[in-house]
Structure formats: structure tokens, C-alpha cells
Amino acid sequence: MVKYKFLIFLLIGFTSQNLKSQSGISGQIIIDTAIWKPEVYLSIISNFNDMYSMSNEIIVEKANIDPLGKFTFNMQFLPDNDNLYRLHFSKKTDPPASLIIGGKDENHFFLIANNHSMVQIRDTIDSDIIKGIIIEGYYPNQILQQVNAIATYLDSTKFNGSIIKTSLIRSSVFEKLRQVADTCSNPIVSLYALYKSKFEQNYPTNQQYYKNFLSKWRKEQSSYFVEFRKEIPISGKKNTWYYVIICCIIFVLGYLTSKTIAKLKRNPNPIADLSLQQRKIFALLIDGKSNKEISELLNIEISTVKTHINRIYSKIGLNSRKDIANLNMDQK
How far apart are CA 187 and CA 223, in angstroms? Predict the structure, then answer.
């Protein structure tokens, strides 16, 4: 019995190790080697705002494309958790860190993978390096491709109708993307759909949706969600009370300032209670002089200037140089 258990243990271990050794990104794509280098580059995208950024630093691996168009990336050295990756090609005349966005020569596409997933890529259209790409193997990429198909509908459709009709179609497409984001079980693909839906335009009028979305993925601590939370100013009741308190403080300060200025307006001579030295300093304050300038002009210590200013504020009911400037403007 012990012998059988040992054999089962070895079989499980071997199978697990064999599956992990098969993980990676592989594919077959037909390229025109007269235009394109027979190489494909893999970059890890840690922030959706950097999807179209390019530098040598974010390229993590390069794979050669053989004469049959086949290439393979080993993913074992990459993170255990899902991440968004970008594969791109470069023209012979361009450096490796070259990104072409849009048009027939667009040279990149995105996929979801981790270090134990198996992703297979195949090209169905020889005449276009990216358009015919199909990603198979790891299931989140099926939804990712659906999201891309929905998002690119706007770019591929020629709108001949009115502005209102175009706006309605755009709204419909973005709403469809939000529905995908709401029902998708993969957090990265779900958030990817939201970014494609132009959420920054929709958030002000649909805040409850984003509250629900963040609540659903509240346990997600990936860099994608950390950055997204910074862009969505929602954090529950605490934030609401914070803004309420700030508004109350501003209201009270405004009220007190207006009362002080109103009191001064009723006094035809607000400097009547000031000493001669204080009147000189008050006049210099009205002229916008600094403490140092007042000290030099009146040949007194800066500490003495500060003491006089505090007494001036106390006697005439002001709190700052700004109040003095406002008083001066009112009297003019």
C-alpha cells in the first residue's frame, strides 16, 4: 500500500512539473522579413496608463521567429499572478523599442498570462501582421479579445449619420464594455474593459456603478487596481464626511471674515486706536511691505515689527495682510 502511495506521489509530482515546464507563450505568425525583423518582444505592462508607453526597460524577453513563423517564450521566470503583457514586432529600420499605434503597420497586441499558463498565438491573415491574431489556451484572453473587438468597432466603423447618432453609438459601445467589466470574473480583464470604455468621461454621471465595481474588487491589490483607485475619487463615507467638514470650515471662515470686514466698514476711522508707530507700520502694510522692509525703513528690530503687527491686528479686528488689502480696496 505504501508503495502504491509513493508511486502516486511521484506521478502527481511529475505531472505537475511537466505541466509547468510546458507553460509559456508560443505561436506562429507570418511576417514579411523584408520589412520586419524576425523577432518578437515581450513587455510586462504594470499600469493601464502605460499600455502605449515604450522603452527598453519594460521589454523583459525576446524570441526569434524561425522560417516557419514559430516563436516561443518561457514564462517560468515571470510572476505567479496574472499580468497584462504586450507582444510587439519592429521594422528592420526601427530600434527594438518601437511602437506603432493604429494603421496597417500597427505592430503590437496585448494578452493575459502568468508563469504557469500556456498561451498559444496564431495568425489567420497573412497580409496584416496584427489584424488576424487569435490568442488561445489561457481563458482570460478570450474575453480580452472580445473587449478589443467591441472597442475597435468605433475605429472600424464609418459614421455617416448625424452627430447625435454617432454619440448614441459611442454610448452604446461604452455601455457594452461596462457590462463586460461588470460580469467578467478575471480582475485584470474586467479593469481592462473599463479603461477601454473611457471611464473618466462616464464616472461623473454614473458614480454608483464605480462604487459597486470597487466594492466587488476591494481585495485586489495589484498595481492595476492601486492606480485605478487613485483615478476614481471614491472611498466611501469617510471621503464624503471629509468634504462636508472642509465645506463647513470654509463657510465658517468666510462668515467670520465677512463679519470682520463689515465691522470695519462701520468704523469710519479704523486706525484711531493705533499709536503713532503702529500707524506708520499699518501704512507700510497697506503698501505691501514685508516685515524686513518695515524693519529697515523704521530702523527697528524685526521682532518689534512683529509685535506691533500683532497689536494692530488685535486693535482693528484683522487677521492677516490679506484682510488689510481687502480693507484698503473697500475704502478706495
Answer: 12
